[in-house]
Amino acid sequence: MNKETIREFFNNFAPNWDNEPIADKEILDIILNNAGVKENINVLDVACGTGVLFPFYLERNIKSIAAVDLSPEMVKIAKSKFPQADVICGDAESIILDNQFDVIMIYNAFPHFPEPVKVIENLTKHLKDGGRFCIAHGMSKKELDEIHMKSAGKVSNALLECEELAELLSPYFNVDIIISNDKMYQVCGTKK
Question: In which element (H, E) is residue 164 found?
Answer without folding.
Answer: helix 162-169
